[in-house]
Design goal:
Chain lengths: 203, 203
DNA sequence: TTGATTTATTATCATTTGTTAACCCCGTAT
DNA sequence: ATACGGGGTTAACAAATGATAATAAATCAA
């Protein structure tokens, strides 16, 4: 239970000034979920209508391709949200698999229960808006990267802003997330290193 | 005024079953906007907090690059939404330019006025959720295309689903939207044509 | 430690794309 | 008719990427 409060308060801190003071009703729609490394959170075909706020760890959303290997749609880490947008937005079975790359602690919010609460407590609507806007911002940031940046620039942007995350994830997933093959990412890293660009600090 | 009702009713039809029967309050937050071909809707640096539902025409969001040419973030057309997500989500000046590629008719919704209305009429919250979810779905569809599809496959997906739109837009904008140069798109078209793939019907 | 597995790098070659420039097509204005 | 400009195609070359395979490095388990 202390864990639950820790995570929820971390989330509420981000929402301070937006939500009403009494957040007790939120506890009825949430639960803390812990995943082991490699554990599957959502399977292909699942209809999970949950919003998960990641307190610790890294999640990976990917599609299983016919060729056997898979393509990573995105990674999500501490402070970010992860959800099956197929199920939430379209009410359709998830086309993707969501799996923990590390031991993960999440605050899981039941979207349907949240809607029930919102019927009686519309003052919590900013909560849903926060979730949707945050997911929208993250999706748009990814899209902008593909439109405006080269693979090398996308890698640099990720390294500069999230070296702490890149450092914890096998390169092959980073490559897939950037839309290139692991071999190509290795060459990009070699080019950067030759130019004296070395990975350092960051957050 | 008849135009206004036409567009709004088209939008309300998509929202049937979600919004309450009396939609009169919505008229206070909307206006019909007509743009000429080539007219700029939002400039770089603007802080326009509007949601625009396109009834007719095609809009283009792009960034002006230092090199002089520009890169298209996305196109939006009939039935879709367009908004400066910088201003709406982050309350920051728009980094992009939004311009009409054709004569455009839109239903423009003032996001701040909408929030005022929602304070007194929380029963209209589904309207905001519809907007956010729709924009999220569109952003994710674009992102999935870049992660899972090759430029050629992205072009085919666009042509097969939206030939009516592709047909109306200069190829250079299509190319930019797909993340390739106009020269490369021309080569892709040539390859496809050599394989007997010809652009035909579609919607 | 050892051995087995996974991951990352490097090499090779084919394919694709970017870049630049030339050329063509086609409307439009003069 | 002529000139002009926007848009699309094609060519030529450089650069980057994909695919495959071999090798090296790191990780994990026994």
């Amino acid at each position: 239970m202390s864990f639950s409060i820790n995570i929820l308060q971390g989330l509420l801190q981000e929402l301070s000034g937006v939500l009403p003071a009494d957040t007790a009703p939120l506890f009825t729609i949430t639960r803390v979920l812990k995943l082991e490394e490699g554990e599957v959170y959502i399977r292909e075909g699942d209809l999970s209508r949950k919003l998960a706020f990641i307190e610790k760890g890294i999640m990976r959303a990917y599609a299983e391709k016919a060729s056997g290997d898979d393509a990573t749609l995105f990674l999500r880490w501490e402070g970010q949200l992860i959800a099956s947008h197929d199920a939430i937005i379209q009410r359709q079975p998830s086309r993707f698999v969501y799996r923990a790359l590390e031991p993960v602690t999440m605050l899981e919010i039941d979207y349907d229960k949240m809607e029930e609460v919102l019927k009686d407590h519309p003052e919590f609507e900013p909560l849903r808006n926060y979730f949707l806007m945050k997911m929208l911002a993250e999706a748009l940031e990814g899209l902008e990267g593909f439109v405006f940046l080269s693979p090398e620039e996308r890698y640099l942007r990720l390294v500069d802003s999230k070296w702490g995350v890149v450092n914890r994830v096998p390169d092959k997933y980073i490559a897939s997330m950037l839309g290139v093959t692991p071999v190509s990412l290795s060459r990009i890293r070699k080019r950067l290193h030759a130019r004296g660009r070395k990975p350092e600090e960051g957050n």
